[in-house]
Amino acid sequence: MKFSENLIKLRKQEGLSQEELGEKLNVARQTISKWENSETTPELDKLLELSKIFQISVDELIGNDIRPKYENYKKNYYEFISKTKIGNLPLVHINIGYGLRNIRVAKGVLAIGNISKGVFSFGGIAIGLFAFGGLALGLISLGALAIALLLSVGGISIGTIALGGIALGVFAIGGFALGIYSIGGCAIASKIAAGGYANAHIVIGDYADGTIEFLTSNITLSTSSEIKNAILQEFPKTWNIIVTIFSKAIL
Q: What domains sit in the chain, N to C, each tagged with a CATH number?
C-alpha cells in the first residue's frame, strides 16, 4: 500500500480531518491534501511526526500494511483535542494510555492524561495551577503526593498551607505536621504547635514540649485568652486568623 493510501486510512481511523491533522503537524490543510493525492511527499521530520501520531514505524507508514497493528494499538489509548484554543493551548486535551509502556502526555487549559500539564490538570502526574493526581504539582494541589505553592492536600502534602497524613508547610495540619505553625496528632513547629504531641515555642496539647506550654489536662475558662495573649506577646506580628485558630484549639 502506498504512503498516500496509508495516510488516508490512518487519518480516518484516528477520526481526524485534514485540518486537524495539519494542526498537529503545524502544516496547512492543503499540504495534507497534497500528500494524500500523491502530489507531494512529506519531509523526513514530518514523517517522524506522523509515525509518532499514529504510533507506527516510518517503514510501515510509507509502504507496509499497518491495519492489524494499528487496530491493536488503538485499544491502548484514548485521545481527544478540542478545536477551541486559548493561545496555543487547546481548551481540552484528553490523552490517556493504558499500560506502563503507553504513557501519554496531555497539554491544555483542561488537561487529562497519564501525565498532564494545564491550568486544570488531572493525571497520574499532574502539573498546573490546579493539579489533581497521584503526584500533583501546582498552585493548589490534591494528590497522593501533593506539592503546591499555596494549598496542598494529600497523603504527603507540601505547601504554604499543607493538609495531609504527613503535612509540611508554613501552616501544616496532619497526622504528622511540621511547619512554622502546626496542628496534628504529632505537631512540630518553629513557633506554635497544637496536637496530641506538640513541640514548639508555644505548645498546646496532651503532651507538650515547649517554652510556653498549655496542657489539655489543665484547661480553664481563661485558657483561650491566655493562649491569645501569649501568642501576641511572643509573636506580635502573627496574623489574626492564626491567633484565632490556636486560641480556639484548646476548646
A: 3-74 (1.10.260.40), 80-146 (no CATH), 151-248 (no CATH)
User: What does the pLDDT look like over 20-41, one tens digit per residue?
Assistant: 999 999 999 999 999 889 889 8
> Distances in Å between the alpha carbon of 173 and those of 22, 163, 203?
50, 5, 15
- How far is residue 133 CA from its own chain's centroid? 5
Neighbours of 154 (CB within 10 A): 27
Condensed to tens digits (0 to 9), the pLDDT of residues 193-243 reads 999 999 999 999 999 999 999 998 888 878 999 999 999 999 999 999 999
* Burial of residue 65, with CB atoms counted within 10 A of its CB: 0-12 exposed, 13-18 middle, 19 or more buried: exposed
Which residues are 175's β-sheet partners? none
Task: Provide, for the chain, the percentages of residues in helix, strand and coil under a 3-state DSSP scheme, each rounded to the nearest 5.
Answer: 30, 50, 20
Question: What whole-number distance in Å separates Cα of residue 136 and Cα of residue 146?
Answer: 5
Cell readout for 50 is: 506522523
- Model-level pTM? 0.67
